[in-house]
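Late entry, written up from scratch paper. The run itself happened at the end of the previous shift, but nothing got recorded in the book at the time, so transcribing now.
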Amino acid sequence: MGKKIIISPSIQRILQRMGEQIKLARLRRNIPVEIIADRAGLGRTTVWAIEKGSPSVSMGAYAKTLHAIEGMDKDLLLICKDDKKGRLMQDLSLTVAHRASKRKK
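Output as recorded:
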């Protein structure tokens, strides 16, 4: 966790918001950090770093923490699920087969 990772301010804000949401989910359930850390197999400092939105914590640690909060890791499956822009771009690049006109006899 000691390495410095340089990210854009917008990504940092997203990570901070995600960390806050993870912390709120834990607090709403009244689960202490120690319990989450134990369930996730992580240290308390790592869980605190996640709750602050640290970019140096691995995605796996974020997933383990979410799993420790009553299986919330399944929410990760929602990421990019409804990729409207990607689907539109894919549809626009599809080629449409043209049929030959019918011949008159």
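The longest helix spans residues 9-28.
(Scratch paper discarded after transcription.)
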